[in-house]
Amino acid sequence: MTLNVNVKFVLPVVATVLSGCAVGPNYVRPDIKAPTSWKASEKDRATLWPQAEWWKNFSDSKLERLVNAVLKNNYDIKSAISRIDQARALAKIAGSGLFPSVNAKSGTNRDQRSTTIARGGRVRTSNLYTMQTTASYELDIWGKNRMTAKAAKARIESSIYDWQGIRLALTAEAATTYFQFLVLNDRLEIAHKITEAQRGIMDIIEKRYRTGMVSGLDLAQAKANLASVEATISAIEQQKKQILNAIAVLAGENPGDIEIKNGSLMLAVIPVSIPEGLPSGLLERRPDINEAEAELIAANADMRVAKAALFPSITLTAQGGYASQNLSSLINPASTLYSLGANIAATVFQGYRLSGEYERIKARYQELIYNYQKAMISAFSDVENALIAVKKLDEQEILSTEAVDHAQKAYNISGVQYKHGLVDYTTVLQTEAALLNNRNTQILTRLNRLIALTGLYKALGGGFEGKI
Hints:
The structure is a single chain. This protein is of the alpha+beta class. The chain has one domain: Outer membrane efflux proteins (OEP) (Up-down Bundle), CATH 1.20.1600.10. The protein has nine helices and four strands. A four-stranded antiparallel β-sheet has the order 1-2-3-4, with helices on one face. The protein is elongated, with a radius of gyration of 38 Å. The model is unreliable at 1-11 and 13-19 (pLDDT under 50). Residues 219-246 form a coiled coil. InterPro entries: MdtP/NodT-like, OMP_efflux. Keywords: Coiled coil, Lipoprotein, Membrane, Palmitate, Transmembrane, Transmembrane beta strand. It holds the Pfam family OEP. This is Outer membrane protein.
């Protein structure tokens, strides 16, 4: 039994001594030259980032409830969580090579020799009882097993970043879809008012047509304008139902199971300021960038595994236990048996299979480096474009508001002039239609502005808290 105890301690010691190196290059983050500041920003080197629950900046309880439902029930998020569980299970499998493999077995055999062979012509029978434990351990001299485990760990992190990226994308989609629903409410209200104005114009033109004051062309144009606006109402109602169905799917519900009370986009709160951080901070803030780097780390480890496969492997084996012809004497020092061994295995010739596999993985690693660098500059571009959109749409909303104010004044003036007989009622209705069209442009500009703000939150990484 003393020898078995010694083997128990010798194997890890030998493994520790011989497992001190790993072939292949260590991972180094690719060099990225990040801008020192955002060119489209008017702020001085801000270092703050958006808060985790960025959607609360819009101060809309219905939006908050929708986002919470999406985060809780969305099936894409649930699928991403399942992928994390799969990656963790695979990591357990990949890490098993770092430990010895130990197996135990016991058995009994009864042997009877032929009477024609046995001495004296007598039948001889015997029993053999065994109880054995076997252990084997591959010395990780070249780091193959460690790098296999490292690659699996990096893929766990990659799956977590993927989950965080999906959460970010879906919260942004939920906010955008919700704003689109609100703008349809406003557009529907305006369309009904435009319809009333067009119907009033058509009534006047019909009366004039009957008295011969206008031609049939004028009447046909008025009817066409009215029909066009009425068709717009039907199209908006269709879009509202489809948007609600899209919101239901986002929230993990069946189409038609979600209702949102009508609201106005013009009542939506515009965040006063969004912290932008520094460009270099995107290395830590964006889930997609961190996912790309985790895949890069995994590929580096894969490359080192393929490199280690080119070298010989050494496996230590040990076997110990008991064997006896009598069950009563099985557990007895005299029945002890053991064996120790070491195997060296090396590939002599397999064509170019191993070297070719190494070259393939090495090329894949280089591809992922380029993907990572592209992801970085794309992220910088996303933020710059979002900042430009926010700035320009701020300007556009100011101008569209001025247009509404002027159209409102024109409508008010036409009403006063009509009362004094200076213009006919058609002019009043036309100025009203112009006012409503300007309001329609205003709310669409507000929608684009809110979508741009949402896009900026997303481009900055939203509520992502940084590396795992």
